[in-house]
Structure formats: C-alpha cells, structure tokens
Amino acid sequence: MDIIRMTGGMGNQMFQYALYLKLSSMGREVKLDDINEYNMENSRPIMLWAFGIDYPKATRKEINQITDGFLKLSHRIRRKLFGRKSLEYHEKNCNFDPQVLEKSPVYLTGYFQSEKYFEDIREEVLNAFTFRPVIYNGLNHELKNKILSCLEAEEHTLAVSLHIRRGDYLANSEVYGGICTQEYYLKAISLIKERYPEAVFYVFSNDSDYVCSWLEKTFPGSVGEIPENIPETERRSAWERLKGRFVPVQDVPEELGYLDMMLMSRCRHHIIANSSFSWWGAYLNNSGDKTVIAPAKWFNNQECRDIYTKEMIRISAKGSIEEYGTE
C-alpha cells in the first residue's frame, strides 16, 4: 500500500489527489492521509468534496505501520536500539521527482506541483476536478445570485481571470514576495489587451479592499461591476459596457474559495499569481487556445522549473517576457 499525506489548501490538495489518480492508474493501492495535518487546530478545510470526490482514507494504524510511528513503549525502545524503519519519502524539491512514482510501498510527503506527474492521464484528472452542483448548497440568496451573475457575465464577455494573492503571502514575503509585482501585472495586462482588445478582467484576490483600491488608482475610470438583476432586454448592453474593464470579484469568503476557482476556470484566458490556487484555475480551462500568463519566478528560495505548463507565457518581476513555455 502507498499513502499520500495531504497538506495545504485547495490547490495543494488537488495536486496530491492528482498524484493519487496517477499511482492508482499504475495499478497500485493508494490511500490519502487526511489525519496528521487536518486534525490540527486552525488547519485549512479539505475542499475536494466540491468535485464530488470521495477518496480512500488511511487509518491511523496504517499510517503508523508504514512510518513506524507507533507510540507504545516497546516500539520506542526498538527504534532507540535499532533505528526507525519508516517508508516515508519526501519529494526532493519543488520540481518533478521520478522517485515519487517509483517507490512502493511508500508514505509520500510533499506538494507534487507539476503536471509531469499526471500529464498522461490529463483527461482523467480534468474529469475528476469537475465542480458539482453541491457547491451552491448552503449559500445565501445574495451570494448565490452574485456567483450566477458572474458566470453569466463571463459567458457573454471575453473573460480573463486575474489573480492577486496577498494575506499569507505578505506574512511570508521572503519566499513569495517581490514576484507578482506591479510591473508583472501591467505587462501581463498589456499583453492580453494587445491580443484581445475587448477583454474583461475578472479580478480575484483574498484581499478585496486592496484590489479595489489598486484598480481605482491604476486604472481610473476602468473599473466595472458585474450586472445583477437586470431585465433580459438590457443584458446585452450591460455586457457591452464591460469591455476593456476590470471587474473585482468580491464577497466570496476564503472558506468558500472553491467558488472563486470555479469562476476562474470559466474564463477564456488567465493571469495567474505564483499560487497553486490560480494555477488550477487556469488548468481547469481545457481550451486549446487559451493564453496563460505566469510569473517567471515561482518562489524566492528555490527554482521551480516544472510548475510551468507548455502554454504559459512567463513574465519577470521587472515586466519583461522571459520565455514561452517549457521544454
């Protein structure tokens, strides 16, 4: 048996589940450990349910068996005398590690943030990550109406998702900071406008106040609103008025982040942050002619070559195009 430890937020959970699908396709028995991290206080919620996913869960006993983690005195004495016999393997770094696919039995820890782990089963992964109607359950009428209005607006405009991540990224600026700069976004927006003059930018963030202030300051007179509750006869003109504008997508609480990802995935083109969340928002768009713009650097503390997919256009923090795609 192989066990994959789940960790992190929704984007990370999706990479880990995609690896589960890959290992399962190889004929291996695989389970997910959602105990060690998600039983902790203030842990992030598991959001795979938004796709209707019911995954096989490793038990505490199975986890202890494969990691040699039993706490009984006899086990502690044996480990002290003869060493720990754990089958745990941690990915080497943020790039594709072929040993992740080769070791078995194994307890895998890491983020596995590369399409290279599951590229050959891409369609299976995309089918698994199909948002289900259950995502609307429990939403109040006002929020549900906003989501449906945004979906309708995206469908009738040349929609581009733009993701600005702050919050936890500000607290860890030594790793994440100085990458998605003003220059990065301005160059990305300029490139999109050159290709698609009628583009409407739907702006997603975990800091709505900052985004609204930034948009008003940077693009005065170009900020629009998602039309809601308008008569059928006026809808076309309302969508026409959005052309070339920036529309902040607001009022979606972070614990309902799957709604933002769903809305991102329905856009035609994407400007992503150095975030697995908007990576998946772009990846779930299965269009063959989409434009995806990504920051040329992913983290400050390591080089992440394999996070990029072939169609991505990489732009530096200084606002220059560095390369198209990966080899």
How would you portray this structure in words?
This protein has two domains: 2-128; 139-324, Rossmann fold (3-Layer(aba) Sandwich). Helix content is 36%, strand content 14%. It has helices spanning 10-25, 60-67, 73-82, 99-102, 122-128, 141-155, 168-171, 173-176, 182-195, 208-218, 232-240, 257-265, 276-283; strands spanning 2-5, 30-33, 88-90, 106-109, 158-164, 199-205, 246-248, 269-271, 292-295, 312-315, 321-324. Strands 7-6-5-8-9-10-11 form a seven-stranded mixed β-sheet, with helices on both faces. A four-stranded parallel β-sheet has the order 2-1-4-3, with helices on both faces. Strand 3 (88-90), helix 4 (99-102) and strand 4 (106-109) form a beta-alpha-beta unit. It is globular, with a radius of gyration of 22 Å. The two termini are 34 Å apart.
In short:
With 327 residues, the chain is α/β, with parallel strands linked by helices.
